[in-house]
Design a protein that fits this description.
This protein is of the alpha+beta class. Helix content is 53%, strand content 15%.
Length: 837
């Protein structure tokens, strides 16, 4: 006990290390230093000074949201580690000072002797030295089939690499489950030194990439801000030099500054992110990291686990084959609801050779199938299980001895490796060769193959070993983890969208290839975990460029594969559900966890969670991600275009020496009413027709390329030329300044509507653009028209905006400017407007 306390003090508790976390003050201080936050605060202050409290409130809310998001992201990693910590620390039964003690898992130390029984969660990494058992290591490998554990050979070296998965090894791993047998094991690693602890350590080291789109938006804001400051300064100097007062010149500069402040960019990004998360939730995809929404459309590689992702993570009977070679597909039994009578003995004895209360996945599948087809399941429940000959290293089969109250003697059922069953039955060399051929054929289809035999015994005293029974070979049972519905179609859609699908599994190569073929994944060859370990990191990317199936992969291998794909320039999405998937889920550009079958650790590490565990939802998410980015690009293009005439109308009268067109109130009206509402309309736009038939866009493709930015500026410049011409002509014809202003303002609103129509689809004709369904768009047009009409005809509002009386011909003239702009831009659209690849 004293030694245990010393080791606990020196090596620490058997739990994951807690990483130091920053305080809320430190997080807030870092956020406050960001240029975007400082810009928003300054812009809000300007609006407060100008009395535009609504705009100031919106900006302050956005700034508060930035701080909240930063705090949430900071503590998300803590929750991942906490989930791992809870999982890795079950209670344990240990021997200390010759006595058994039940202690908390965190108090287990290296050197403790664990007593492990069927159903126990293993508390630490340990070396089995007594007994034999089977362990479910799906937590670490993702594979649903339990693996056999055998005592360590005292004469063999135990210094070799120990990895989860694989039969006939003496290593037990923290967090895994003993599903059969019992034994004693010596603890060799605890806490962060255990396999599950190493996963926790790698999670703590991985930092997700910062949102690229946010950085790009910051760049656009800085660019517009620099231009805005320069133009504002110019406007102030022009007004001051021309003889106006400093206050008047300052007001002119502030008006122009308001016209050029691009605060809509971050606001639109927030709206699209929130609405995108809502749309994804309707498609049964939960968004945990907002940056994943912008990256979905860039995905070039989709890495997926096999068990629980492509398959249903449950074993089921796929094929029954008699000793004569006659085969029966379980799918036919499901269709017809019946099983031919000649297969009943095979299935019944398979069930009798399983656990009384099955825990092992294969036993559960056999017993459930037998009960579903009435293959003597009642005798299994009525008879008494007299003895079990457990599986050993030299006898890879389980033999159950049953006694029936209605008959004398014993009934014996055996189930296990086909070669072991053949030996127990004493099959001839010819029969063994035929059996091997049948087994290989079934294994080639990705099936786990078990041989089944039965015997009777009349003596009262059972033998020490089952070899003394006279077994009769009945046939083979093939089990598989069934592939999920619609997987093939989803993989095909990914391929059509230019996305390469890769399967990474801890299962055996033959099984991996069989499942890959069924799913439609390129299965020309497979690379195994040992091969990956021998490839240097520097050249790994080149070696895996062509391979799409990886088998016998450890969590560390999986992480290396994801990082190698990223080093090749691929935007990588990773789907998984187990603890073993957590590091690669966090490291991938887009980590996607299963919500139903997935572990808490996987869900916490992922950016997206599939609530329905449906692989097809990934394709839906990618489709929505591409649509969201397309629409975000349309909205930002609209904002860039609409700011050109707004800024120009504020600057032009200053340069030309004419009465002002737009003041602070007019600009605030345009930005508060037109821009945000139009952004919502763009968010509601339906997807482009080629959204899933074009390649993923390049990760380096900017939100607004120089070509597209030029197109947006051309739109704005064309509108500015038309509106200023209208203003100058109206003044030249003798219109009062307030009436000319109202005409120009109406033309500005009509131009904004024209911008919406032109930018709502890539390359779509004007006629088709009007036919595209978007109810929100017509609401936008109606709201803008009604508000403008109220402003023009309600005397207090008209006086506040300094508008003149607006007659019916004036409305026609203003609308005509928007219509002319629409026609001109439609002619130019085919040259500049293209979707992003």
């Amino acid at each position: 006990m004293d030694e245990a306390r010393k080791r606990l003090l020196i090596e620490g508790p058997n739990e994951l290390e807690r990483q130091g976390s920053r305080s809320a003050f430190m997080i807030a201080r870092e956020v406050l230093r960001e240029p975007m936050f400082l810009f928003l605060v300054c812009a809000g202050g300007i609006y407060v000074i100008l009395g535009e409290t609504s705009e100031a409130i919106v900006l302050c809310l956005f700034a508060t949201t930035s701080v909240a998001i930063a705090v949430v992201q900071e503590f998300r990693g803590e929750r991942v580690l906490q989930a791992l910590k809870n999982l890795a620390s079950p209670r344990a039964l240990v021997i200390r000072n010759g006595e058994r003690h039940r202690i908390a898992g965190r108090d287990v130390v290296r050197g403790d002797i664990l007593i492990i029984s069927e159903g126990d969660r293993i508390a630490a990494d340990a070396l089995l030295f007594e007994g034999e058992l089977s362990a479910d290591e799906s937590l670490l490998t993702g594979e649903s089939v339990a693996v056999r554990k055998i005592p360590v050979d005292a004469n063999a070296s135990t210094s070799s690499t120990r990895n989860p998965g694989g039969d006939d090894t003496p290593y037990l791993f923290s967090g895994t489950l003993a599903v059969r047998g019992q034994g004693k094991a010596e603890v060799v690693a605890t806490g962060s030194r255990s396999e599950i602890g190493k996963i926790g350590a790698s999670l703590a080291r991985i930092e997700p990439e910062p949102p690229r789109l946010k950085a790009e938006i910051n760049g656009l804001v800085r660019m517009f801000s620099i231009i805005g400051v320069a133009v504002c300064s110019l406007a102030f100097l022009l007004q001051w030099v021309s003889g106006h007062s400093v206050l008047y010149a300052l007001l002119a500069g502030i008006s122009l500054g308001m016209a050029m402040l691009p605060e809509e960019f971050p606001l639109v990004l927030t709206v699209f992110t929130v609405m995108g998360a809502w749309r994804l939730s309707r498609a049964q995809v939960l968004t945990r990291r907002a940056a994943a929404i912008e990256t979905l459309g860039e995905a070039t590689v989709l890495c997926t686990d096999k068990t629980g992702t492509l398959t249903e993570n449950r074993m089921s009977i796929a094929e029954l084959r008699l000793a004569t070679g006659e085969a029966f597909s379980a799918a036919r039994a499901e269709q017809t609801g019946s099983l031919p009578s000649q297969f009943h003995p095979l299935l019944l004895n398979g069930a009798l050779a399983s656990q009384k209360a099955p825990v092992d996945a294969m036993d559960v599948a056999i017993v459930d199938f037998a009960e579903a087809h009435s293959c003597g399941a009642e005798s299994r429940n009525r008879d008494i299980l007299q003895q079990t000959y457990a599986m050993t290293r030299n006898r890879l089969a389980v033999v159950n001895v049953w006694r029936s109250e209605s008959s004398d003697g014993f009934g014996i059922a055996a189930k296990g490796a086909p070669e072991t069953i053949a030996r127990l039955c004493g099959l001839s060399a010819v029969d063994c060769a035929d059996l091997s051929t049948m087994t290989d054929s079934m294994a080639h289809d990705g099936l786990r193959v078990l041989g089944v035999a039965n015997a009777t015994f009349s003596d009262e005293r059972l033998p020490d070993e089952p070899d003394d029974f006279s077994f009769h070979f009945l046939g083979l049972i093939g089990l598989a983890d069934p592939i999920r519905a619609n997987i093939t179609r989803a993989v095909s859609e990914c391929r059509a969208a230019g996305i390469r699908v890769i399967m990474i599994t801890g299962d055996y190569p033959a099984t991996a290839l069989a499942i890959a073929r069924k799913a439609g994944i390129d299965a020309s060859h497979v690379v195994s975990g040992p091969e990956i370990e021998n490839i240097p990191t520097a050249t790994l990317g080149r070696h895996i460029r062509e391979c799409s199936v990886f088998a016998r992969i450890t969590p560390a291998d999986k992480l290396r594969i994801v990082q190698a794909l990223q080093s090749n320039g691929g935007i990588t999405a990773m789907i998984g559900d187990g603890v073993n998937d957590a590091p690669s889920l966090k490291a991938a550009h887009i980590g996607i966890a299963m919500g139903g079958r997935g572990t808490d650790v996987a869900r916490e590490a992922a950016a997206l969670v599939l609530l329905d565990d449906n692989f097809g939802s990934v394709v839906t998410a990618i489709r929505l991600g591409r649509r969201i980015f397309d629409n975000l690009r349309k909205a930002t293009g609209f904002i860039a275009a609409v700011h050109v005439p707004i800024a120009g109308l504020a600057l032009f009268p200053i340069i030309a020496g004419l009465p002002p067109i737009l003041g602070p109130l007019h600009i605030a009206f345009l930005e508060l009413i037109i821009d945000p509402v139009c952004s919502i309309a763009f968010e509601n736009e339906r997807e482009e027709s080629d959204v899933m038939s074009r390649p993923p866009r390049s990760a380096k493709a900017p939100l607004l390329s120089w070509t597209r930015l030029l197109w947006c500026l051309l739109q704005g410049a064309t509108a500015l030329a038309l509106i200023t011409s209208l203003y100058v002509v109206s003044l030249w014809y003798g219109f009062p300044a307030d009436q000319a202003r109202s005409l120009s303002f109406g033309a500005m609103i009509a131009s904004s509507i024209a911008f919406v129509v032109v930018n709502r689809s890539f390359g779509t004709s004007l006629f088709r653009a009007f036919l595209r369904p978007n109810p929100i768009l017509w609401v936008v047009f109606a709201v803008a028209s009604v508000i403008f009409a109220i402003t023009l005809h309600w005397t207090p509002a008209r006086a506040l905006f300094d508008f003149g009386v607006f007659y019916a011909p004036d409305a026609f003239i203003s609308a005509s400017v928007g219509l002319i702009l629409l026609m001109v831009l439609e002619l130019l659209k085919g040259i500049f407007d293209r979707p992003v690849g």
